[in-house]
């Protein structure tokens, strides 16, 4: 006989005995059913212990070890993934933010500096040009005005002609 089949039928028999104990509780009374059920459960525990010892005495130890290893592996993996994801996200965000701010600041500063320089140069050129035009106009006016000696001559000449011309 195959040991797996024997174990299956023994387990099935114990299950039926426990079901019979439940039926006895309903039909024959609580005391008889509970006593029979406790007996069936105790014999089932003895059977399980015997089966574990027969197949592999370290079966339970191996099962518990495997379950603990699986649980620890899953928890550690999840924890490490979460921690790494958070830290990497924070560091990358900080670095990208710093680089972007630095680059934007440098580019904007350069553009603003160039634009301001161009505007100042253009404005100064225009202002200097306007001032030069005004100076030329003033110089032309000054050149058209008579000098002091010419004014003296004109005044002398006018005084003489003015006295004679006034003849009144």
UniProtKB/TrEMBL annotation:
Ranges of compositional bias, category Basic and acidic residues: 141-159
Assigned keywords, A-Z: Membrane, Transmembrane, Transmembrane helix
Organism superkingdom: Archaea
Transmembrane segment boundaries: 12-28, 34-50
Stretch list, region Disordered: 75-107, 135-168
Presence of keyword Transmembrane: yes
Protein's recorded name: Glutamate/valine-rich protein
Species annotation: Haloplanus ruber
Taxonomic path: Archaea, Methanobacteriati, Methanobacteriota, Stenosarchaea group, Halobacteria
